[in-house]
Design brief:
heterodimer, A: alpha+beta, eight-stranded antiparallel β-sheet, 8 strands, B: alpha+beta, 27% helix
């Protein structure tokens, strides 16, 4: 079980969990004054941007940095969606987008849940939050996206759920970093080596 | 000492980790102003490097091409992670975001500059090119990362592909980026 707090302040923090966050996927110019905006609203996201960067950005925006404040401002905050674990296991967490995701239930596929719950599957982070309901959650690093800092800070005031405490949020960030930094090796490298 | 990176100019339909693409728009925000009126704020970056991991990009591409039979939608990405790449001389002068009226840190001392050139400053990745490429030194600023729509970037790549950073060198960039993201803020 991870530790959380409910202290709400003006600043976005690494590990904040915020609800109903819109990801602007694209804006297409359709001619004249007409634009098509495609966005997806995620019920929950966790902030992955590093705390120092968020802290400096906040101070720069508040005018409390005297030396090169513009240099410390961020363009965006990195977040990842957080889904209910039972929906992820059923492959149903993106049903509103008509996406059938991998099923991890049933006699043949249930074995996939074990490594995921032990946080051995690089793509996911399993969280047990001490919430009254829906405490079992899964972060999907594959679905990470960025969002404007000021828009998220404004949204946080009404949509803040909780903040993951230091050690636990560092663990999430480290696993996300490992996920991003994994090295793609050619599939047939072993075979080529044997042939040589 | 910073080593020269290796690049190639082979472009295909797929977005690859290490692709350098020109004139990429970042949609910063869309604000509803009431009625049918929306205000769209975007920034165009002259150069960006793709940071999303190669396997993820490959699986996404294969999915959309119908080459993955099992749970194809499970492999689709919502966006691609990129970071802006600026001319090194402009970064040293703090002038690389002058179009946005942002005065950035000036690195006037030789020590500051050499730390960046040697990739000892976690925020930046210095790119030095072989002389035959005739490309001025560039700097990736990891702090300015953002995500962009994959399909739109694929379309843009057809006209705006600059070059591709070859394996190993792109892995080095990704590893330094993830180290930048995963650093732990200790109380001062």
């Amino acid at each position: 079980m991870i530790r959380i707090n409910y202290q709400l302040d003006e600043q976005i923090h690494q590990g904040d969990i915020i609800k109903d966050v819109k990801h602007i996927q694209k804006v297409e110019h359709k001619g004249g004054d007409e634009y098509e905006i495609t966005c997806i609203e995620f019920p929950l996201v966790v902030v992955l941007t590093q705390e120092c960067d968020l802290d400096l950005d906040y101070k720069a925006r508040k005018g409390s940095l005297t030396s090169n404040p513009e240099d410390k401002k961020l363009f965006s905050v990195l977040v990842a969606p957080v889904y209910p674990a039972d929906q992820v296991f059923e492959g149903e967490h993106l049903r509103d987008l008509h996406r059938q995701m991998q099923i991890m239930t049933g006699r043949k596929l249930k074995h996939l849940q074990g490594p995921l719950k032990n946080n051995d599957t690089p793509r996911y982070y399993y969280l047990e939050l001490p919430l009254k309901e829906d405490g079992e959650l899964i972060i999907d690093f594959c679905h990470c996206f960025s969002i404007d800092v000021e828009s998220l800070a404004k949204l946080k005031q009404s949509n803040f759920i909780c903040s993951i405490k230091e050690l636990f949020r560092e663990d999430i960030s480290l696993r996300f970093a490992n996920y991003l930094a994994r090295i793609r090796l050619p599939r047939n490298c072993e075979k080529n080596w044997l042939e040589k | 000492m910073n080593e020269m990176i290796k690049i190639d100019y082979q472009s295909d339909e797929q977005i690859h980790q290490g692709d350098i693409i020109k004139d990429v728009e970042y949609i910063q925000k869309v604000e509803h102003k009431g009625g049918d009126e929306y205000e769209i704020t975007f920034i165009e970056f002259p150069l960006v490097v793709v940071l999303t991991q190669e396997c993820n990009l490959e699986l996404d591409f294969k999915t959309r091409k119908g080459l993955i039979a099992e749970y194809p939608e499970d492999k689709e990405l919502f966006s691609v992670l990129v970071a802006p790449v600026y001319p090194a001389d402009q970064v040293f002068e703090g002038e690389h975001l002058r179009d946005l009226h942002r005065q950035m840190q000036i690195m006037s001392s030789g020590k500051q500059r050499s730390r960046v050139v040697d990739n000892e400053t976690s925020r930046y990745h210095f790119l030095k090119f072989p002389p035959e490429e005739k490309i001025d030194d560039l700097i990736v600023d990891f702090k300015h990362y953002f995500s962009t729509d994959l399909k739109k970037l694929e379309l843009l790549k057809k006209d705006n592909f600059a070059f591709h950073i070859m394996e190993l060198y792109r892995e080095d960039i990704s590893l330094r980026f993830t180290n930048y993201l995963a650093r732990i803020g200790l109380p001062l």
